[in-house]
Every structure is written in C-alpha cells, then in structure tokens.
Amino acid sequence: MGAPLDLASAVAKSLVLSNLVGHDSHGIIRLMEYSGWVQSGNLIPNAYPKVEWTRESTSLIDGGWGWGQSASYLATETVIDSARKYGTATVVLSKTNHVGRLGEYVDLISKAGMMGIAFCNTGGPIVAPFGGVKRVLGTNPFAWSVPGSADFDYVLDFSTAVVAAGKIIMAGMSGESIQPGSLLDKAGKPSVNASDLADGGSLLAFGGHKGSGLSVLIDVAAGILSENMPAAISDSGFGNGTIFIAVDVSRFVSLDLFKSVASQFENIMHNAGEPNSVLLPGEFEYQTRCDREVNGISISSGIRENIEETAKRYGVSLSGLL
Amino acid sequence: MGAPLDLASAVAKSLVLSNLVGHDSHGIIRLMEYSGWVQSGNLIPNAYPKVEWTRESTSLIDGGWGWGQSASYLATETVIDSARKYGTATVVLSKTNHVGRLGEYVDLISKAGMMGIAFCNTGGPIVAPFGGVKRVLGTNPFAWSVPGSADFDYVLDFSTAVVAAGKIIMAGMSGESIQPGSLLDKAGKPSVNASDLADGGSLLAFGGHKGSGLSVLIDVAAGILSENMPAAISDSGFGNGTIFIAVDVSRFVSLDLFKSVASQFENIMHNAGEPNSVLLPGEFEYQTRCDREVNGISISSGIRENIEETAKRYGVSLSGLL
To answer: CATH assignment of A45-161+205-282?
Structure first.
C-alpha cells in the first residue's frame, strides 16, 4: 500500500496480535478498510509519527495522518519513559488514523510495571446519548490496565457503545435480530432490527447514563485535547484522538507486592462463581492466546475472501500462505 | 464529635454541598454514620491529613484515619499544584475514612482548568463480579471531569454498582421491590426483593462485564496503591483508598478554545432529543444547585430525625435551625 517495511511490520504485528487474542474484528480483516483509506488519501502510508514536544510529564505526538498503530507504539513508549522519570505521565496523540485495539497499548504499559489508561474518540457520530434519539457520539473506547498475576496483566478494553457497529452491520446482512437495548431506529424508537442502523438509526451507549457519560467525557477530552474534535463537530469525521496515561506502580508499593496481592484477588474472583464463570479483565484474551499459539488462528471464509481481495488489489501472491 | 473547628467546617461544607447539588444520600444524613465511626474508634476526629511525600508528579497523602473530606481537599490541592508544574500528576490517598462525593473533588480540578479523574475502592465487599454469585467487590465509584461551558463543568460521578446499597436498604424497609438486574439473593439467583441484600445477597455491577471490569480495576489499583487493599482482602473492611489524576488542559490547547468547543458540543447534545431530555454530566447537579440556592434545601422527615438524634447525642441545640 506504499508503507515502508518498518511501518508495515508494526501494523501487521498489531493486527495479527488482535486475532491471536480473539478479537478478529480488530485483526487482519481491517487491511481492506485501511487500503480504502490509503486510496482516498485519508491515510498517508509512508508518514512517520513524531514526538511534537515533551514538557515535563506531558507530550504531544503528531501521527502525520499515518498508521495509528505505529503512532500508538510511539505514544506508548513515550508515556512509559516519562512516567519512569516523573512517576506519572500523559501523552496526547493527534492526527492519526485507526489506532486499532487500545488494550494492546495499555497491556504494554502494565508490562512495564505501570497502571495504564487509554481512551480515544472515534470519527463519525453513531451513538445517541442517554435520553437522546440522534447520533452525537462515537463508539469511543476506553482501556485500563494494571500489573496482574504471573500469567497475565488485568486489561480492560471496551467500546462505550452497547455493541460494536460492525457486529450490527453483520447481523443486518444475515437478517438476524439484535438484543433489545442496543439500537434506535431513525425516528428514535427502540429497535431490534439490525438494518435500522444503516437506515439512519443510532447505537445506544452501554450502561445507561453511566456509559453514555463515559462516552461524552471521552469525546470532549480526547477530541479537544488532540484537536481531532468531538465526532459531532469534526469536519473530517476521521481519525482517533487518543490520550494515554501511565502511573508507575513502584512509586507507591513494590511491584512484587502489587502482583502478589493481585494474584490473591484473582483467586477470590475465580471462587466467586462456578468454575470458569468469572474471568478477570484480560483473561479471555490470555486464554485465547494460549490456545491459538498452539492451535493456530482459524480464519472465517469472510476474512479469507477479504484478505484475498486485498492481496489481489496489490498483486500479492498468497500461495502457500492460505 | 471531637473535631477541631477547621476540620469540622470542611466536612460540614462538603456534606451540605452534596445536599445542595441534589445528592442527599451523600449529604448531612451521613453525620450519624460518622458519629458511629468516631465512637467505634475507626474515625479519629482530630487527625490532620498530611502529604507523606511528593516526588516529581506523584504524591502520597496519609489521611491518618481522619475525615475523608479534609484528606480529599488536601489531595485535590496537591494534584492541582503538581499538574500545574509537571503538566500531569497522580496523588494516592491512603488511610482515610469515607471521602464523600468524588464528583466534588474532580469538579475542583476542572475549575482549575484541568481534566480530573478520581476513583476509590470501598470497604466491605457487597457487589458480585460479572458471572459470579458472591460478594467480592465494593461499590467502587469513578469520577471524571473536564472544563465545560460558561455555566458548569462536565462532571461524571457514578457508583459501579447498578444502584447504591443505601437505596436498596431503604426500599427493603418500605417493602418496595427493586428493578430487575440489580440484585442476587444469597443463593446467587436474580432477585427483585430488596430484603435479600441484608440477607446475604449481592448487588450487581452496572453495564454487565464492562462495569464489573471497571470495578475490578478500581479495587485492584486504588486498593493496592493506597495499601487499603481490595475490599475482599482488607482486614479492616474500612476506608476509601483513592487515586486522583489531573491533566493541565493548557499544555495542549488554550482553555478558552477547550471551553468554546465544549459549549458547541453541549448545544449539539441538547438538540439530540426532546427539550431537557439530554443532560451533560454535571448538568443535573448544576440545575439542582441553581434551584436550591434560591429555594433552599428540603429535608425529608427521615433526614430531620437523623439530624435531631445526632444533635441530641452531642447535646447540641437545634432550636432556630430546624
């Protein structure tokens, strides 16, 4: 697509990792979408992100409207370095395309012995605020991690929409109805008919006014500080304004103590229900990764066709790969 | 209760402010509960909080097991001062009693032109994690603010439990049933019978696995960094381990620009539904405050009796006050 090898490798690594941990919606199926953005000029494939400035424990990263994954890796490194020096740090990432899966970056922060928070606003309003009937908010995801037990860190990563737009669109294609409380039609009435989304309806935020409030804070904070602007105001309707925060655990307690208490807490959680009924945040991803590292990643026929079509567009031979 | 005038004034101001903005559950009704803690020795009424240490943009506040409100005011001042100097700051508050309404403190942070985040774990497990049937988590509240329009800042403040334990206990007293999805009985079955909570049942977290995940992160992060320990591990089952984070908006964009875009966003939100159907986070509190500053705060007979009983305990005359 015109990306130099190092940028292409970073994006490939990030997408495959999403498949590996079980989030196929954020995996290699995205290549086709990215290809469209490169062709439309929204994604500049050879743009390198750069640290625009660092002042004490704050930094601004300029993504140059390139690959969001490369920009996010730079933002993650920067926030970890600053938090090591100052105890805590905040990095704002501006002018970037789809950053991928936020959970990947906060996991890197917790692997560095820190608490990590990341959230971004998303281009194009599609979620109605609590009490409203029109699209105002993006799907605005939020991620939060802390060092966990020896096996895995606790990584929370969710969309503030009840369900991902992609899942509703796919349900609409196959004529399935969707769970009540996820969708309004274009008149603002509750709907379980997935095709109402494409017809001008709105997604709902998770958790009533609480989830809607989180989405509002993300749109305002990440939208304005990144100058991407909230989805409902942005002219471009494009890109992810993203904020990364890190806090060095060892300033307050030893990392060993933190992880030891976390393990104790993990046991209590596991005993709070039937076996395997209670998972820690990040545990599904850890279990899926363990399984897929041994057994490989199954690709649906839809994803396979998607990759084949993308490869054909660039004259790439997939023989021996699929 | 043995508090010096300055500490007593700070607590009184904080409690009345909660009544003023419409959160009577966090208002002067708490005096009776605090009095019990003073009598049991959990709350040391003349203990002053102190900044244990500050290293670059991180600080630890030792509440000395005194009043949570005074300790939180010190934590809020400290995090604002540090964020002014370093751009962003994190303050952990340890060894403190009930901090009151987190929204009050993040509102002070946004009034200083900053984004504020605060969350705390709460003593005594009462919430079952998603997928579980036993009490593991506290009601672990989360608050987040940014500078808003000219009228008010956007202040989100919620319990990660579906409903406050206090509301369920009050419903139980009056024999009311509660909304489905809020409660499990002691056998782990869904219940709408409020008395099942007192009988060993569990509250549920809001928003399914997402809200439950937020509660887990709060219990682990705030519980361990403050050394209060997660509710399910703490021996004392007491106090609020609290984390305050501030980010100086003016490092990234001018405060005027931030507030001007926020106002524009507020208008879009207000037009997303019927008049007064869509509120920004903090708008209910702003409206209630405007009303109560003019018309006064109505006190229910239950709160009145509560105050009278507390006053009698300390030989305080309320004549002319109630």
So the answer is: 3.30.1370.60
